[in-house]
């Protein structure tokens, strides 16, 4: 190893390597979200069949992408809470509430504008706008769930630690099949377990190493094994009609999420830089992508009468990713990103 290489492997450099994969994972996750909504919209619109390769791909994506996002969301929570629990709860709620309210309201306006061309036509009333404060809907439930989980973390972590957070979240998850969960807490109870795992892993990764780390080849074999278990389990769920995002399917989602995160750690070079850049803009893409995906699908299938599902999928997926990026670039130039909750 040359002196230059030795210098490159400083603690700061290694810490940067450990966090680079998080942006890569966010990039992979947001692509999966866009693809999932693109395929789901095509299925609901009758462009593709409910029993098809499209439906199988949709099922695979939905077993893993949101559990993975919640694990990622928990990774740095302990560090932020340690800087002041009350400050963290206040700042994170404000940071998430702004885009939640703004873009949820915009999506409702879009639904009204779409009318009967939408997959689920609905006449939005002023009560619906008001109800977003306690009844999260569409894909915005994820943002609402994060607000709830961040507040819960600010209360529990300073006093009881991440192990208690994990135990409570697992207990709450196990009760979701037996209890009628209010809409405001649905996301937090169904995904708090994955979030708490992220919190626990984030804490452990910042501790001094007391055991030997896995070699690259060992990590590669583990990722392959977990990927196999995920695909096998997801196939079994589809065969036996087992619902996603339930306590009984946790093992499948966990295998898939951990496997995907491990694969993200292997990504290097130009692909890493591209996925990282997407990951850094994942909030903007998440907030706006459905507007582009649904709008493009309606235009192609209903206005232009395009019937090729592959063409429709490619166009609406690309627009679902690059449309929000273009809007984010524009709001950055105009200085509006912070006001719109996209900063």
SSE layout:
Blueprint: H1 3-8, H2 11-44, H3 53-74, H4 77-82, H5 85-114, H6 126-131, H7 141-160, H8 162-174, H9 183-205, H10 216-239, H11 250-266, H12 269-280, H13 282-303, H14 309-334
Helix pairs in contact: 2-3, 2-11, 2-12, 2-13, 2-14, 3-9, 3-10, 3-11, 5-7, 5-13, 7-8, 7-9, 8-9, 10-11, 13-14
Low-confidence stretches: 1-15
Order of helices and strands: HHHHHHHHHHHHHH
For the termini, the CA-CA separation is 41 Å
Beta-strand residue fraction: under 5%
Structural classification: mainly alpha
Q: What brief labels describe this structure?
A:
14 helices; mainly alpha; 343 residues; single chain; disordered N terminus; 76% helix
Give a description of the structure:
The protein is mostly helical and 343 residues long. The chain has a domain at 75-207. 76% of the residues lie in helices and 0% in strands. The protein has helices spanning 3-8, 11-44, 53-74, 77-82, 85-114, 126-131, 141-160, 162-174, 183-205, 216-239, 250-266, 269-280, 282-303, 309-334. The longest helix has 34 residues, at 11-44. 38% of the residues are buried. Residues 1-15 have low confidence and may be disordered.
């Amino acid at each position: 190893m040359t002196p230059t290489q030795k210098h490159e492997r400083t603690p700061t450099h290694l810490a940067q390597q450990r966090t680079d994969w998080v942006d890569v994972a966010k990039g992979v996750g947001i692509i999966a979200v866009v693809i999932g909504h693109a395929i789901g919209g095509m299925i609901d619109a009758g462009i593709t069949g409910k029993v098809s390769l499209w439906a199988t791909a949709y099922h695979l994506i939905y077993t893993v992408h949101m559990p993975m996002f919640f694990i990622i969301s928990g990774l740095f929570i302990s560090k932020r809470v340690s800087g002041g629990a009350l400050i963290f709860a206040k700042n994170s709620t404000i940071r998430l509430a702004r885009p939640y309210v703004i873009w949820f309201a915009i999506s409702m306006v879009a639904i009204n504008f779409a009318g009967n061309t939408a997959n689920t036509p609905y006449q939005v009333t002023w009560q619906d706008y008001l109800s977003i404060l306690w009844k999260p809907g569409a894909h915005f439930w994820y943002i609402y769930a994060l607000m709830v989980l961040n507040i819960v973390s600010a209360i529990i972590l300073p006093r009881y630690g991440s192990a208690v957070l994990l135990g409570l979240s697992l207990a709450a998850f196990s009760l979701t099949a037996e209890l009628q969960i209010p809409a405001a807490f649905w996301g937090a109870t169904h995904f708090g377990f994955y979030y708490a795992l992220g919190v626990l892993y984030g804490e452990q990764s910042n501790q001094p190493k007391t055991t030997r780390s896995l070699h690259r080849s060992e990590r590669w074999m583990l990722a392959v094994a977990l990927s196999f278990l995920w695909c096998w389990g997801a196939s079994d769920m589809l065969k036996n009609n087992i619902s996603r995002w339930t306590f009984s399917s946790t093992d499948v989602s966990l295998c898939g999420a951990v496997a995907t995160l491990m694969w993200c750690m292997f990504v290097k070079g130009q692909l890493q830089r591209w996925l990282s850049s997407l990951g850094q803009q994942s909030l903007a893409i998440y907030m706006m992508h459905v507007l582009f995906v649904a709008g493009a699908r309606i235009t192609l299938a209903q206005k232009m009468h395009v019937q090729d599902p592959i063409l429709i999928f490619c166009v609406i997926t690309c627009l679902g990713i690059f449309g929000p990026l273009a809007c984010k670039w524009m709001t950055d130039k105009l200085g509006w990103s912070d006001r719109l909750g996209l900063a």
